[in-house]
Amino acid sequence: MPADYNGYWKMISNENFEEYLKALDVNVAIRKIATLLKPDKDIIQDGNHFIIKTLSTFRNYNMDFVVGEEFEEDLSGVDDRKCMTTITWDGDKLICVQKGEIEGRGWTHWIEGDELHLELRAAGTVSKQVFKKSYTPAD
């Protein structure tokens, strides 16, 4: 059984995010705002079905997907692109591949203890974020 990602997660670190946004060709004003934010993640997992809500005071972004099924992802509010996205399991890690205009785009999520790790990749640039579990739905 894969890891249980259910819960509300609060960001505790964000490394190299502005460089990642530059790799996505996000304009400088949005980059400056985005690097100041500390978004939360609200994750609902039912087997292989996930709803991941990234919540901030500036913009919210929702992903609703089934692991292993390709879907068109609308990245309006991120970098205003669309891509074909597939998310798969690698052990307990979620691996995302986003096919579109930006080469090598995707991310990896994994859990270590009460921390959710996110590695974002685009055009050879890597950003790492860490979130601490705030509560689970049963709390």
TrEMBL record:
<dbReference type="Pfam" id="PF00061">
    <property type="entry name" value="Lipocalin"/>
</dbReference>
<dbReference type="InterPro" id="IPR012674">
    <property type="entry name" value="Calycin"/>
</dbReference>
<feature type="domain" description="Cytosolic fatty-acid binding proteins">
    <location>
        <begin position="7"/>
        <end position="24"/>
    </location>
</feature>
<dbReference type="InterPro" id="IPR000566">
    <property type="entry name" value="Lipocln_cytosolic_FA-bd_dom"/>
</dbReference>
<keyword id="KW-0813">Transport</keyword>
<protein>
    <recommendedName>
        <fullName>Cytosolic fatty-acid binding proteins domain-containing protein</fullName>
    </recommendedName>
</protein>
<dbReference type="GO" id="GO:0008289">
    <property type="term" value="F:lipid binding"/>
</dbReference>
<dbReference type="InterPro" id="IPR000463">
    <property type="entry name" value="Fatty_acid-bd"/>
</dbReference>
<dbReference type="InterPro" id="IPR031259">
    <property type="entry name" value="ILBP"/>
</dbReference>
<comment type="similarity">
    <text>Belongs to the calycin superfamily. Fatty-acid binding protein (FABP) family.</text>
</comment>
